[in-house]
Design a protein that fits this description.
Distance between the termini: 30 Å
Strand order of the largest sheet: 7-6-8-5-9
Shape: globular
Number of strands: 10
CATH class of the largest domain: Alpha Beta
CATH architecture of the largest domain: 3-Layer(aba) Sandwich
Largest sheet: 5 strands, mixed
Order of helices and strands: EHEHEHHEEHHEHEHEEEHHH
């Protein structure tokens, strides 16, 4: 999310909260700096990527930071190429990220386009690779949640049924060439078009730049403008739209658990505790349900976030 994130995994809900406890406070610098840097009862800015799930998560973060004594603002941005530099500069203080996608973004930026991938299907191993990369650019990784969202690829459900398609390998074996739809950066992302071509051998005849798993891509699949489109595993409305997600049977995608990250100069334990309290209870099932409320039922991300936090007993004020 993830494009929604821009790159990304395949690990199940068996990830228990304890699995990630070592990440909490793995970097605990004292708060310092000025400008956008938050202090007790001060301002703090949470950035959201340009898709619904990120907006929900950013509003969750902001509400919990408000409760912790900050004056929190959600700033809706666009892609990781915009969000990541803003976080590093301190123009924003907090971002809901995804461990696999963020790891590979920093890896490729630091080590070049041909860098060996560091993210894997193991969330702990991926987190261990992410932490030093993030630290080197002034970002502190907090506690990941069990919830994750991966890049997925969908076709029309009736096309899948007619051709007995369950996996991306099935699509490759069917032969033919296909029009792919997705975010503009997809042709350059190793887990998007290059992954379909190189890992699965799927012939992509044309790419149509649309959005990151959003309404443009899903509508294009429905009306046949594209044959296959990038969607997300936590999307709450795929089945309702008559689409079929093809399983990533060759594990192209990596572990992509939702994780709060902070500008290191903005770090404060009070803020970290507030954000980690969300990670401790958030699941993939929660993401699917929350996304359905926003993407299908057209509810507002801030209200959806508030209702969920209240139901979890996290938001008490």
């Amino acid at each position: 999310m993830t494009f929604r994130r821009s790159v990304l995994p395949a690990v199940g809900l068996a990830l228990a909260g304890g699995l990630f406890l070592s990440a909490c406070g793995s970097s605990s610098p004292a708060a310092s700096g000025a400008g956008a840097t938050p202090t007790a009862m001060g301002d703090i800015t949470v950035a959201a990527f340009g898709f619904g799930e990120s907006k929900i998560l950013a509003n969750m973060y902001a509400l919990m930071l408000d409760q912790a004594g900050y004056t929190a603002t959600v700033k809706e941005l666009t892609t990781r190429e915009v969000v990541a530099p803003a976080l590093e500069k301190g123009d924003v203080n907090v971002v809901p990220e995804y461990i696999g996608t963020y790891t590979e973004y920093l890896n490729l930026r630091e080590n070049g386009a041909n860098a060996k991938p560091l993210a894997t299907t193991d969330p702990q191993a991926t987190l261990a690779k992410l932490q030093p990369l993030a630290n080197s650019v002034g970002v502190t990784v907090l506690q990941p949640s069990a919830a994750q969202d991966q890049n997925s690829f969908a076709v029309k459900a009736d096309f899948a049924a007619q051709n007995n398609l369950e996996t991306l390998s099935d699509l490759a074996a069917l032969g033919g060439s296909y029009i792919l739809g997705g975010p503009p950066e997809c042709p350059k992302r190793p887990f998007c078009e290059p992954g379909l071509v190189n890992t699965y051998g799927i012939d992509i005849s044309e790419f149509k730049p649309l959005d990151a798993g959003g309404p443009l891509t899903k509508q294009a699949i429905q009306d046949g403008t594209v044959d296959i489109g990038l969607v997300f595993s936590s999307d709450g409305g795929i089945k309702d739209l008559g689409l079929k997600v093809l399983a990533d049977d060759k594990n192209l995608q990596t572990a992509d658990n939702v994780v709060p990250v902070m500008n290191t100069a903005s770090y404060n334990q009070t803020a970290a505790d507030a954000l980690n309290s969300i990670s401790a209870v958030l699941t993939t099932d929660d993401l699917v349900a929350l996304n359905n409320l926003v993407d299908i039922q057209r509810k507002q991300p801030d209200q959806v976030a508030k209702d969920w936090l209240t139901q979890q007993g996290l938001l008490t004020s």
